[in-house]
Amino acid sequence: MSAPKEPQIRVLICTDASVVANPLKLALLGNASITVQKEVADTISAVTAVRNGDIDIVLLDIGIGEKPVRTAITRLKRADPSVNIVMLGTLSFANVRTSIRGLMDGAVEYLPTPTPHAAGADQRTFEESLERVLRALGRRKTKRVPPTPPVKTTPEISKVAPKILLIGSSTGGPQAVTDLLTGLGNDFNLPILITQHMPASFTSIFAKSLSQHLKRNVKEGSEAHHLQPGDILIAPGGLHMQVKAHGQSTRVHLFDGPQINYCKPSVDPMFESAVAIYGAAILAVVLTGVMQRIADDQKSCHRIHHHTRRWPGIFTTFAVRRWTEGDVFAERRTIRMADKPG
């Protein structure tokens, strides 16, 4: 008896530009696990299609400009909060800036499309990236499964006050990072290190966007930066970020090593180096991840958890994607604890 056929992932293409549509259609051609449910040329039609409830993923061309893209993402998520939005567009400064704002508004990924005269290798890279993202996101949940009643336990609370907050974040992460930092408030004074899986041209714009949103100084980590209370540092795209002891202080170290689980920056160097310095005095949060990297992120967190247990008072929003037996499923949880740490 043959195994039941997996339901196809239903996508909607929203673009009126051949420079985006052509490589996209070529990438999806002949893929039996993905079906193009609808093609539209404007965002109003896309919102209408999503409202009908038969779209899993919207492939949104961001060449229409930052304001229309952000408006479209807001309306698409309002029409169906469970729909996933993947932004597409040629790699340019304007599109990078738009994509960062779009990720902060609720889109889950941005994929640069190859230029019309790009080499075949660029098209193959795009096709592989697109298929990996679409398979990872999969079909949206159409039925709400009642949650399993939680087992009432008394968490073991660490008696060690934390000295640093570490955040690891991947696909869909910018919105979750923004929510988390907003929830912490401006009186949260621990140094914060963030590893967000992004290319080199993205992280500086992400830092600037966060600065504007939070009204705090958020910047990329720099070599030998001396960590201070209240610092918010993002690992620069294309480099791993660690912390190293320097006398009585802690400094940032950046290095151009190989990718770890397809990511550079990766959370592993940040987590592992922090454990060596701070031991139990760490708050660690993994916000998102797909495929293998979330498994390894969780292993790193388990190592930190072994030292830290739980420490009350932090407001966090998790958007966790777990990899289990070849399938990815999404789980969103909000944990509100008592008072924020002083």
What does this structure look like?
It is a single chain. By secondary structure, the protein is of the alpha/beta class. It has two domains: 9-137, 3-Layer(aba) Sandwich (Rossmann fold), CATH 3.40.50.2300; 164-335, Rossmann fold (3-Layer(aba) Sandwich), CATH 3.40.50.180. It is built from nine helices and 14 strands. It has helices spanning 18-28, 43-51, 66-79, 93-105, 120-137, 173-184, 200-214, 267-278, 292-308, and strands at 9-14, 34-40, 57-61, 84-90, 109-113, 164-169, 192-196, 218-220, 232-234, 240-246, 249-255, 282-286, 316-324, 327-335. The strands form four sheets. Strands 2-1-3-4-5 form a five-stranded parallel sheet, with helices on both faces. Strand 10 (240-246) and strand 11 (249-255) form a beta hairpin. Helix 1 (18-28) crosses helix 5, helix 4 packs across helix 7 (200-214) and helix 8 packs parallel to helix 9 (292-308). The radius of gyration is 21 Å and the shape is elongated. Mean pLDDT is 78; it is low at 289-342.
* Biggest sheet descriptor: 5 strands, parallel
Strand order of the largest sheet: 2-1-3-4-5
Spatial gap, N to C terminus? 61 Å
Please give the radius of gyration in angstroms.
Answer: 21 Å
